[in-house]
Amino acid sequence: MNANLDMELLRFTTAGSVDDGKSTLIGRLLFDTKSIFEDQLDQVKRSSDRKGLAQADLSLLTDGLKDEREQGITIDVAYRYFATPKRKFIIADTPGHIQYTRNMITGASTANCALVLIDARHGVVEQTCRHAIIASLLQIPHLIVCINKMDLVDYHETIFQKIRKDFESFSSKLDITDIRFIPISALNGDNVVNRSKKMSWYEGSTLLYTLENLHIGSDYNHIDCRFPVQTIIRPKTASYHDFRGYAGRIAGGVFKPGDEITVLPSGFTSTIKSIETFNGPLSEAFAPMSVVIQLSDDIDVSRGDMLVRSNNQPDLNQDIEIMMCWLDNKSPYPKSKYIIKHTTSEAKAIIKNVRYKLDVNTLHRNIENLNIGMNDVARVQLRTTKPLLTDAYRKNRTTGSIILIDESTHETVAAGMII
Question: How do beta strands 9-16 and 88-93 pair?
Fold first, then answer.
């Protein structure tokens, strides 16, 4: 059982236009990997019968909200979990409607891989470009383009190759290193879990095989050591009378007992005495593990501080340049104050300057109209009340990201990638 728990976890997100078949694809993955309970399947069959469908509508497995089941659309980010003997998976199923682009940002921010669905009948559309740009902005390491509904175009190779060529010419402008193309029919299960007999011309892997074998070990930054402190552990019991540990999740690098570290922003130095976990001490720990680090010296460390290597430190800045996706339906007003959250640290911030708005369909930088509305992506400069310990987002997705929260409503109004 323990070997099972130690399996690698792949997080992937799905994106595409409305009715491209994302929910059906996920339903098919769950169904063909035997990851569905009998009662769930019965419920889906009953719903499908009521609609007068000839076969079970697998998309109903993922449309968890009643609202969606009735309308047949996905509104929120629905997280699904399944496992095969090789790997564990968490799927973030995000909506296709333009007004829900922000949900894609939520679902994709921690993903190793993005599945972009394209309807074989319609080819590359505006939403395809939008989702690919967001995947590139969020630095998702792997992109799998699933050309779906191949059954509706008689499984023609020429249609697949044309869509592939169109997507490649567009994506060459983006910052995505690993793109794969798979022709599928989610409805009939072609090339999803099982190989398709109807597309013998396709020599690549099925979707599940690709997901099981994507190399994700190097997706995390194992060079720059970053440990944002979340809380201080002081048991004060008889057996742990003098224990003082710093708990948190490693955001980058590899930590070992004996390593010399610097505590930022104070600049105090010490060495790591031990690295503790629920299951006992470790000889080394790396991102994204959650651990408790004990230091050899009794120095003042609090939540929001960061343990780093003495010769490899993040930037300490109050002026921060970010690519921001605005998530609120109210536009930001000039010099308004927001709460900024960055790793375990919190401060106040204002939007000091809007450099440009990015047209997420053409990648054009608009410097004339700088009014920001919901789902807009813009490059802005923030000024914070205290310096933050940051890296560029492309270097570290944890220490390179921020969120802005409205002080009065406590709603998250923006997500940003530090440049």
Answer: parallel
Chain Cα centroid distance, residue 63: 20
Write the CA distances from 23 to 99, 126, 302, 383, integer angstroms.
Answer: 18, 20, 44, 41
Sequence ranges of the domains in the chain: 2-219, 226-309, 315-418
Contact 228, 399 (CB under 8 A): yes
Is residue 268 packed enough to be buried (19+ CB in 10 Å), middle (13-18) or exposed (0-12)? Answer: middle
Do domains 2-219 and 315-418 share one topology? The answer is no
Give the homologous superfamily in CATH for domain 315-418.
Translation factors (2.40.30.10)
Measured on CA atoms in the order 330, 331, 334, 339, is the torsion positive or negative? positive
The answer to whether the beta carbons of residues 256 and 227 sit under 8 Å apart is no
Asked whether residue 21 carries a pLDDT value surpassing 90, the answer given is no
What CATH homologous superfamily does 2-219 map to?
Answer: P-loop containing nucleotide triphosphate hydrolases (3.40.50.300)
Q: What are phi and psi of 7, to 5 degrees?
A: -60, 150
For residue range 71-123, what is the model confidence (pLDDT) as tens digits?
544 445 667 888 899 999 998 876 655 554 556 666 667 789 999 999 999 99
Contacts (Cβ under 8 Å, ≥6 apart) of 165: none
Q: Which CATH architecture has domain 226-309?
A: Beta Barrel (2.40)
343 Rama sector, left if φ>0, alpha if ψ -120 to 50, beta otherwise? left
Phi, psi of 41 (to 5 degrees): -65, -40
Do residues 133 and 176 touch, judged by C-beta distance below 8 A?
no
pTM: 0.80
Model confidence pLDDT, tens digit, residues 354-374? 999 988 767 789 999 999 998
For residue 196, what are its two tokens? 């398709």
CA-CA-CA-CA torsion for 159, 160, 162, 167, nearest 10 degrees?
A: 140
